[in-house]
Write a structure and sequence with these properties.
29 helices; mainly alpha; two-stranded antiparallel ribbon; 2 domains; 717 residues; 4% strand
């Protein structure tokens, strides 16, 4: 029997952690929570005026995001309730149903948008309303019995730290897209495809693979939810903040699922468990909600929080499986792993592989290999709609990956080589290799990048990723597992194995090991850290974690609570500094109208009556609808138009293509030439010839330079 197996036997059900005994009035607790959130929001934004603007966006869009989550839970629970099991904690059931329902929503948007083209509010609002009604109807009996207590355990005050974290979250989530994530260049992906693809789909009225944006062939499980938000709000820019809040919604679902699952002591049928199980659950949820990297990701309309949520719920179901093996639990593991794969290709190696591997080991140990097979089949099943879509479009189910095996689709041999070189595990020269190519000096090794990710040194520029206290708890937890294995559950022992597989896959198979790709590794790290705190809290008077009834004072709880509070506090300090450095003075733009920001991004005085063409720039989100662009890995639209020597035909070809403005991002072209590669047809020399032929409307220059333009806007007469 493990330490957590003893929780329900050694304490009264529902007892608060020692050192946090006593009660507080519920009304006072709510006032404290709201005050903490508002104070942190105001402090982060620097004044009460932008805080009010942020709330004017966060409240209505947050309610819509909550309605989508409620609706998803209604559909998901209707389909899964026979599989969820009576012994499963309620919050884990609800979280699993919500994630399953969100997968249904994203798949339905993709299928309907690809075939019928139904991308309007009149179609999707009734769908959301029906799901919300189903959720309320299915929960009618518990809702009737629900009574809010007049007083709450003093342990509930720990959630004040979560309220402070929510203030930082809203401060970043209500900044326009592209104004956060700049320190780590993650804003590039947000503007290039996380938001741009849903915007293109909404404006065209159809979901279709695009030959100018290779990322349209990725699994877009979260981006389809962003598109759903744009449909509900009736516009691409109107749905921008909603998309970011929907991404943050996954963190809330993840915390709820973890809290509910861990609060039930393993082996104890009572949902409250004991005081140690309760502390373990609070510790895990609080470490998650205050983690600097979670708060950073919550400011981005991205997909990593969704991946982390799926992994966390899969691990919670693995815990249930180890307690009561059966195909229902393994099916839920497969559903969560499949939902993760439908979000991002990386989930195959960083989520599905480690989770299914440890499940297979557990199933073989119990002589139930069919359980692992059920999980694998469901994983493939939820992933398959995106694979089928790619087969139809390119013949390659995982396009643009594995293009040497399954075919390169519409990519030329040079473009396929550029993609492969840019995504190879080690650094390779760009394709084509420019004559002046210089490899970057002092390239860090894989182990150097791992160390930088853990402790916040280069190449991550000293910005926090996991938080220093969590790293200490992780190391202490792993050492304690090795030195004092007695009392560990099977689930405890499998968490380091999941983490080891994830880190190995990240180090061996990702290009330059981006920190954002490893964000899913934080889930087992938090859980190991929370287990370390729980084992400390379980220590009795003789210095040993006890099993069952035992004499001696439980002195470990007080230092465990102190460590938890200190860790959460330091996490918030790190997140605060990260936010201030990332957002800078742009914090005053909280709640700004995205259309007005687009006007500032590309003013109307530079717009013509035709199309705008971007060269070297693919962050198209704030540019006018119909802008001609391509990612560096796709065929460049202007490459054929400008083929051959410069001359009067350039102007004629551009006009025939409907283009009357050309924006050239010279600095970005130079970066691409030295990293991924840039087509020779659009070499800087050829573009400078075009610049001499066409009138220049506007130019900006690099700091300290008056010769080399950073960006040029040309008119096509």
């Amino acid at each position: 029997m493990g330490v957590r197996e003893s929780y329900s036997k050694s304490t009264a059900p529902g007892a608060p952690p020692a050192g946090l005994t006593g009660q507080v009035p519920t009304a006072a607790w709510w006032l404290l929570i709201i005050a903490a959130l508002l104070l942190m929001l105001t402090a982060a934004l620097g004044a009460w005026q932008p805080a009010l603007l942020a709330l004017s966006v966060a409240i209505p869009d947050g309610l819509i995001a909550a309605a989508v989550g409620l609706s998803a839970g209604g559909y998901g629970y209707l389909l899964l309730r026979r599989w969820l099991g009576q012994e499963t904690p309620v919050l884990l059931k609800l979280a699993t149903s919500a994630v399953a329902g969100l997968w249904l929503f994203s798949t339905a948007v993709m299928v309907v948008g690809s075939t019928l083209g139904g991308l309007g509010p009149a179609i999707w609002w009734p769908v959301v309303a029906l799901g919300a009604a189903l959720a309320i109807w299915q929960g009618r009996s518990p809702l009737r019995r629900l009574k809010l207590p007049r007083r709450l355990p003093r342990a509930s005050l720990l959630w004040v730290a979560a309220a402070l974290a929510a203030g930082i979250w809203l401060a970043g989530a209500t900044l326009p897209a592209g104004l956060t994530g700049r320190l780590t260049a993650d804003s590039y992906d947000v503007l290039e495809y996380h938001l741009q693809l849903p915007r293109e789909y909404f404006q065209s009225g159809q979901v279709a693979p695009l030959t100018h944006n290779v990322y349209s062939h990725y699994p877009l499980g979260v981006e389809m939810l962003f598109l759903l938000g744009m449909c509900l709000r009736g516009g691409a820019y109107e749905g921008m903040y909603l998309a970011t809040l929907m991404h943050g919604l996954y963190a809330a679902v993840m915390a709820a699922g973890i809290f509910g699952a861990l609060r039930q002591a393993a082996g104890g049928g009572n949902a409250q468990g004991g005081k140690l199980a309760d502390f373990h659950a609070r510790a895990a949820a609080l470490l998650l909600l205050t983690a600097p990297w979670v708060l950073y990701l919550s400011w981005l309309a991205s997909s990593e929080l969704a991946e982390m949520c799926c992994l966390a719920l899969a691990l919670m179901w693995l815990r249930q499986y180890l307690h009561r093996p059966g195909r229902s639990c393994s099916a839920m593991i497969g559903l969560m792993a499949g939902a993760a794969c439908a979000i991002k290709y990386l989930s195959v190696g960083l989520i599905a592989l480690p989770v299914l591997a440890v499940l297979l080991a557990a199933a073989l140990w119990r002589r139930r290999p069919a359980d692992a097979l059920v999980a694998a089949i469901l994983t493939a099943g939820l992933f398959s709609p995106w694979l089928a879509r790619n087969v139809i479009a390119t013949g390659n189910p995982v396009f643009p990956l594995a293009n040497t095996v399954f075919g390169r689709g519409y990519l030329s041999s040079e473009q396929a080589q550029r993609w492969n070189s840019a995504h190879a595990p080690g650094r390779r020269p760009p394709a084509p290799r420019p004559p002046d190519y210089q490899p970057p000096p002092d390239e860090p090794s894989r182990w150097g990048r791992l160390a930088g990710w853990l402790v916040g040194t280069r190449p991550y520029e000293s910005y926090p990723v996991i938080g220093s206290p969590v790293l200490v708890l992780l190391l202490a937890g792993l050492l304690a597992m090795a030195a004092f294995p007695r009392g560990l559950s099977s689930w405890d022992r499998l968490l380091p194995a999941v983490l080891a597989i994830q880190v190995a896959a990240w180090m061996l198979f990702t290009h330059e090991m981006p920190a954002r790709f490893a964000s899913v590794c934080l889930v087992p790290i938090w859980l190991v850290a929370a287990t370390a705190l729980a084992r400390l809290a379980a220590i009795k008077g003789d210095g040993l974690p006890r099993q069952g009834q035992s004499p001696g004072r439980n002195w470990g709880m007080a230092p465990a609570v102190a460590l938890l509070l200190a860790t959460a506090g330091l996490n918030l300090v790190s997140a605060w500094h990260y936010y201030r450095a990332d957002a800078g003075e742009q914090r005053m733009l909280a709640g700004a109208d995205a259309s007005a920001l687009a006007q500032a991004w590309f003013p109307s005085e530079y717009r013509g009556t035709g199309k705008l063409a971007l060269v070297g720039e693919s962050r198209a989100f704030y540019f006018p609808p119909g802008t001609v662009y391509a990612t560096v890995f796709d065929p460049q639209p202007l490459a054929q138009l400008l083929g051959g020597p410069a001359g009067p035909d350039d102007q004629r070809r551009l006009r025939q293509a409907g283009i009357d403005r050309v924006l050239i991002n010279w600095s970005e072209i130079e970066r691409l030439r030295q990293t991924y590669g840039w087509p020779e047809e659009l070499s800087p020399d050829r573009l400078h010839q075009l610049r001499q032929l066409l009138p220049t409307l506007h130019e900006t220059y690099l700091p300290g330079s008056t010769r080399t333009p950073a960006q040029s806007i040309l008119a096509v007469p």
